[in-house]
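Inputs:
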Amino acid sequence: MDFAQAFWVLLLGSLLGLELIGKVPPTLHTPLMSGANAVSGITMLAALTLIITAKNNLPLLIIGSISLGFALFNVVGGFVVTDRMLAMFNRKPSKKLK
Amino acid sequence: MDISLIQSFINLIAVLLLALGIKGLSKVRSAKEANRLAAFAMFLSIIGLLTYYLGKPGEGITQQSWLWIIIGTFVGSLFGAILAKRVPMTSMPETVALFNGCGGMSSLLVAIGVIFFQRNETFIQDISILISIFVGSITFSGSIIAMAKLQGWLSTPSWTQSKIRHFINISIAIISLVAFLNLIQSVNTSTIWLLVISSTILGIGVTLPIGGADMPVVISLLNSYSGIAAAAAGFVVGSQLLIVAGAMVGAAGLILTQVMCKGMNRSLVSVLFGGTLSSQSKKLDSGGEYTNITSCSVEECALTLEAANKVIIVPGYGLAVAQAQHTLREVAKILEQNDIDVSYAIHPVAGRMPGHMNVLLAEADVPYEQLKEMDNINPDFPATDVVLVLGANDVVNPQAKSDQNSPLYGMPVLDVQEARTVFVIKRGMSAGYSGIKNDLFDLPNTSMVFGDAKQVLSELMTELKELGVGAK
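Outputs:
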């Protein structure tokens, strides 16, 4: 990967992140934080790359595997927990008219 | 078609979906779908990566690699899913902190793996590795400390409230910096470990002095850090997708942190370096003694409630601790059956985390429309007969508006004192997170009902039933 290109990617990604969320209702602060947290587990890709390119280097395979485990713990747990939080807001509005 | 082209294409879609996911998560309507969309995007990114290595001539994935991939995937996903399913709704903040710490740990491990075994000795890669180690360690130790403090496993040691902590933290930061600069010139094993250890201690030292009410902000900030760590790991292994997603989370996390700070009327600087509010208030001595406390029985409270037309409930962390949300819902139902107008006033930082109360009350089937945000409900208090304050304290302290010397001054609060009668259900006279005296308790229209929120509420329910309320 060309590093100048990588810096462009970094810059544009940061700008995108700054623009993505403007106003957030307080209700969603916790779910949003939790969801964004799950996305930050994207390091799982780095861990995967490490394992794949390790060939037969056992210590590296183990480090990569532990790293992958931690990342997926973050990703899977993060999304499931966010889903659980958000499931509670999904209420049929018809209930109020009784 | 060229395999790397296919991967780029898949990655592009993944980035787009991730961005849409994070954006959607900030709107109530789309949040649930957005979360699933983001999860799908993550899955897609793995497919993209595997396709690339499987399809590229001369690369491939060895059997041994597959074995370790499967072990890591299985163990991590399994534990993550189990924990996420089992954890009670009241412990959400510490769960998020724990997950976040593990994300940081993952970036740290990638960086350590590469620097010991796969270093290609380019300047940029070295710097990225060092940043990844530094930020990853801080994220990990800081998040774990945040979790332990929220769980109540760790209290705030008193020395962390004195000025010494700045001295200690700055010293550790300097050690980290020196190690960092040394490693840029020449990489050697012992200096790497020095950097790992010093930045880990720095994470602990910075997080430990911060008090309960500020914790959400810290977790949000650490979440932003884990994004930065991920972006750095992206530079290390040369993955554009990782860089863009990490940068996105890092930036979005910063914005969210800013939004949360605004809700509490605190600046990020005072959250990070101010220590807990209680230490400041001791210095200011704005506390003082209570002079005019009225306490009353549950029975009196029930009698007043029966005669009310409009009731507003103000939930706080005490409600979450007592797990009283279901009992509260039952009480509210009884009142509603008696044609009493019931609504809930949600302060942006009630509980331990913004949105904490919404989640908690939603769990107890409280209709979404009854939850009112602070700005919408404040004008309603003068026309309210009874306010029930359940385990909330600082968010209903009128000092925030009246006393310029109060550390709380300027924080937006709920104007409960405007209502005709206020019942504060509380275990004792202890102060809230800020450690500041609550002027509300001294007001003539405020009565204290002492007891555990759940117990008081179930007694209240019995009393109300005896009065014949809700029997219709």
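Remarks. The domain at 298-466 of chain B is CATH 3.40.50.1220 (Rossmann fold). The CA atoms of residues 332 and 342 of chain B lie 7 Å apart.
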